[in-house]
Protein 1
Amino acid sequence: MKSNVAKTFIAVAVIIGGFAAVFLLSGFTERNIPALPEDFEDEDLAVQGSLLKGYALGFEGLIADWYWMKSLQYIGNKIIDSKEPVNIDNLNALNPRLLYPYLDNATTLDPHFIEAYSYGAIVLPAIDKEKAIKIAVKGIENNPNEWRLYHQLGYIYWRLGDYEKAAGIYDKGAEIENAPPFMKLMAAQMRKEGGSRETARAIYRQMSAEATDRQIKETAELRLMQLDSLDERDAIKKVLDDFQTKNNRCPDNWREVLPLLQTTKLPENKVFHIDKSNNLVDPTNAPYLLVNKDGKCEISLDFAKTKIPAN
């Protein structure tokens, strides 16, 4: 009896030690890997989560967390290392081909890993729309009573411009017990005016409110600032057109039109922001650019300073 217990203990210790050695060796390899060409592509994952499931001696959740953290670091490092401005609507320039495998492994080992599904639904549409749908559907199949995952899938179809499909998904999510009224309202909003800024604002506000991950919350907040900037630029463009019609020229600086802007109403009673140098600034506090393009007054974002996406 004692001999069997000892053998079992030794076997378990060897397996756990093996996993520990793999992770330590992985970290050592990453720290000491020689410099690679800039266009070198990521290698495929050597281990698939489906192969570990059932053989990790109850450590599936821990390994899932490891894959989850790797996915966050992976995208974060890609953005930090990028030499060009990052377009959050299209991340393919970063070549982030391992993001889906990381998230797929995490959610295979832990099918109830809601944060991983949510992160995939928010980020993957900018990389591969089909895989974004796939991870969201996988989440719903494994967690059919989690209304947030229906919201994530509805968000993806909304991004794709398929408002009717998005409405149907929000309808299903609204039927789940404890689902907020937001779900039913969004189903109706999708059918009524799916492409409006009001719909987008409602989606990103809900996303920000329910986010448990910092990157998801920051993305939602950035999108809300982008919507505010679009409203501001529409209003500013109208003021510039009126000024040019009246004076037969473009203003030399923002100070010339500030009185007109102060009487201009923005949606939701928001106001324009002016910095200490009397520059008109966007919601990220980067100055708007006043451009005279072939005799026509235009307003532009300062893409060297703003955090607002171009699209």
Protein 2
Amino acid sequence: MSKKNVILLHVFIWLFGAFLNLRDYNELANPEKLSIYIASTLFLAIPFYTFYFFVVPRFLEKRKYYKFILVALVVLALLTFIGYSLLLLIVATFKHDFSNFYEIYGFKMHLSGMSVVTAAAMFGSFFKIFLNWINTTNQKEQLEKEKAISELALLKSKVNPHFLFNTLNNIDALIYHDQDKASQALLKLSEIMRYMSYETVSEYVSLSKEINYISNIVSLYSLRVSNPNSIKIDIPDNYPDLNIAPLLFIPFIENAFKYAIFKGDKLGIEINFTIEEKRVFFSTSNYYDPSEKKQILGYCGIGLANVKQRLEHIYKDKYWLNITDKNGFYKVELRIVTNGN
């Protein structure tokens, strides 16, 4: 809780306490009773803040319970005596008579006054404990948030080198076969790395930039495919300008390109985006050779595990992920409710 809110809460408490201590508005017209009212109200702040600043932090919070009880009893008895002495002094001042100053003061009177002082002290104690609980809760939430941010940063750092490793391998293969295509690939890689360096540092990016980034990646991978018709990417011409977490779709696309079959009648890779209001629908599918054992490792590797963790961190109950793997056909379906974020 901020200091400003704590101060406002203190002010509210004492305004409320002053209201409760005022038993009869007619007393405000009597100077003696007005003085007693003001003194008694202000004096209640002493046990309140004595326990708030000293007794509770020094003994109760440190679990020194026996010392807390002993100190509390001594402080309450002493403050009760001081409080009554102050009130008796005000009465004697207005009556101009200081003889027999403590004549009316007795054990029953002391216990009666001590109950009021104890109430103020207990309220100060509970208020201190309550604020400590709020601060502790806020600190835990902040630590959890910082932990989540650190984990997301670590997951992102795992995604980027993974993509770079695959892309450099692609370019290396192209250099020996077609230098023009290799040059085009380097230009695409430059655009992609610029996006990854400057855009993805934020928790969210523009959906249009993310889709453009994916289009560049598809174009880069397509340079290695002899039949461009074996790759189909469907993106709507117009869609809402939403924000989305970066690099969520790329692990699925990378795996699709890595294991897809580009020979024969079957389509190599199909990628689809559908955007409806604040919902983003993404799917990618491809055929692969079931006889390749490394296929299993590819789809259950670091990239997929990371994107699942990121989805849980960022979107929690606002996403749906379904993966179909059957008879050499692999399909990923992902739906994200962005809520405009």
Protein 3
Amino acid sequence: MVVNTDVRMKGFHKKVSVDKALKILLQNTGVLETEKVQIANTLGRFLSDDLVASQDIPPFTRAAMDGYAIKGENTFGASQINPIYFKLIGNIQTGKVSRINICEFEAARIMTGAPLPHGANAVVMFEHGKEFKDEIEVFRAVAPGKHASLKGEDVEKGEVILKKGHKIQPQDIAIMAAMGISDISVFKQPHVSIIATGDELKEPGMELNEAEIFDANSYSLHALVERTGGIPKIRGIVNDNYKELIIAVKKALKSDLIIISGATSVGEKDYVPKVISELGAILVHGVAMRPGKPTGFGMVENKLVIMVPGYPVAAIFSFQIFVRHVLEKMQGCPTPRKGYVIKGKLKRKIPSQIGRRDYVRVIVDLKHKVPLIDPIRTGGSGIITSIIRANGFIIVPENTEGFRQGKIVEVNIF
């Protein structure tokens, strides 16, 4: 079958910059609907509304220590050689409502977390007092408010705690539970179909002939999608066959996003751009970056289809630079989230080419006052171990020919 290569070649004659490609991609990315989820299952999800405090936390002033509830000003001047005596009038337990009223030079035993009784404004720790039958002697002064957790000191009712689009962390779940929230509204997780292409590919566990390799991309992309909050589905390997690719893409349209690895360049059997153009429209084909030049995007029936290169390292970088932001926007993240960045000194120079953005894998050595950054010497897009050995990458901008040895650079940590 003869396929017109115009669609494939067009993008590579004029590659799009990374920034422009990402802008086009996000302009064509929609936000998914919302759903209510139990808070125990919301880790990593994105809030669909501001989280507003429905009550004060803590909801009452409480003891921060085990001890004696007193009026703090009554302890002024207390010391080991000059103790002050208080009448002991009762006990206050956690979870129990107490009607005790503390008057001048009166005290009540109180447990951590129990409501401070009316009239009391501080707690003397047990070890700073000594009990007799119905009185205690206090030999250390405490100021009003000492060892007491005030009502609303953590959160005040009506306060906006978390903004819409916030990615939920374990500590966020703690504050939700503390407010009595059992479920909360979040954006839905995108369902993502992953298709691998190539006559040479076989599933891990199968027998290989001398010209075949195992499919690595489906599994790395599955893990990356899952880590980014999506729900991945591996749809298997499709041979380099035009009709089979069309059928596979049509079946995957029930998903929110389709990722196709391989057959995205300009080779004789790189049918993916042609298929996307036939079924919909190509938005970008070819990005001025290394690794990942054959990356492209298209739309089919209002669904985004992202074409990532067949080389595993290039596919991973294509995901990190583009697909990750798509998944986050689908889940309500308002702006592209930045990763963890540190600064260090280059051990060797990094050459680059004007007009292309390079993502250079590096090893960060933190044993020095200024971290030393060592670029990986083997940088081919098919060398998977290069991204295993690396613990970060440097971005070399389009407008520079590289970085000199000893330059202080920013490293994006994996």
